[in-house]
Amino acid sequence: MRITAEICFKGKPPFYIPVTYRRNIVSLIREAIRSADNTHEIYSKYWGNTNTHSVKPFTFFLSVPDVSYIDFNDRRLIRLNDKYFKLYITSSDSTFLSILHKWLSDTPNKSFNLFNYNVEIKGIILKEVKTIHSSFERFKILSPAIVRDVAVEGRKRKSMGYLSCNNPDFEDSLAYSIITLCRKFLHSKILNRNDIELDTSLCVSSIIYHYMETIPVTIGIIGIKADDEVLELIYNAGLGARRSQGFGMVDLLTEADYDSITVMEELA
To answer: Which of 94, 154, 150, 155 shows the shortest CA–CA distance to 126?
Structure first.
């Protein structure tokens, strides 16, 4: 399942939010789980004292219809010219998603603070996920994907920063990221590099500013060949690093989507 929530700012536009807005959304999701998780099992599992940096089973994407960028007092801000935006959240953990949906469902028309504005939730949709039909699928990258440059030192791997999709090591590092994700959430699944094939010919490199860093990211369409359960995990939990910080959310493309002019125009 996937959650779509329409969130409305109170007042008249424009509204200004930081380019690091993902941090605010992460805090919102964390506090929602904390508040609505009656057993505290899910909250402790992913945000407990020893699990602050644990691999988490979700990602999200913010869709805003009309934006521009301004510089104010040495800060980069996003100007929102509409009072509505949509928040898309997906997870491979159905219990996590159910708890989050419960909090959102109990919140409509109630005000809360986000980006230092009063906002309210106007609508929540719980959508069925699309079906994986084959061992090769194409995904549209909705929120930019981050891929760590993972170097091998002896028998260990060490992060050396981040890679753009133009780097010759990009596909190997992304494949290693997928293997790590499967090791965490598909416990019976043992993969090696030959189990994953990637088509990055329609991927495009870009740059974002996040947590005081300038990071190369990847957008566009990516083709992945792997077992069905691996593709399903990528579809539900996201692709690459920092997924729970709002990166790497993907949508499964049908043949009609892939062949359409609309999808290709969005990548321009």
So the answer is: 94
Strands 2-9 and 84-91: what pairing?
antiparallel
C-alpha 217/C-alpha 135 separation (Å) is 26
Alpha helices by DSSP H, listed for the chain, are: 22-36, 41-47, 94-106, 170-185, 228-237, 255-259, 261-266
User: What range does the domain containing 260 cover?
Assistant: 136-266
CATH code of 256's domain:
3.30.70.1900
CA–CA separation, 114 and 27 (whole Å) = 9
Domain stops at, among 70, 99, 127: 127
Return the DSSP state at 254. P
Band of residue 150 on the pLDDT scale cut at 50, 70, 90: confident
Contacts of 78 (CB under 8 A, 6+ apart): 16, 17, 18, 19, 21, 64, 67, 68, 69
**Long-range contacts at 146-152 (CB < 8 A, ≥ 24 apart):** 146/215, 146/216, 146/217, 146/218, 146/240, 146/241, 146/242, 146/247, 146/248, 147/173, 147/174, 147/177, 147/218, 147/240, 147/241, 148/173, 148/177, 148/240, 148/241, 149/173, 150/176, 150/177
Residue 156 pLDDT more than 60?
A: no
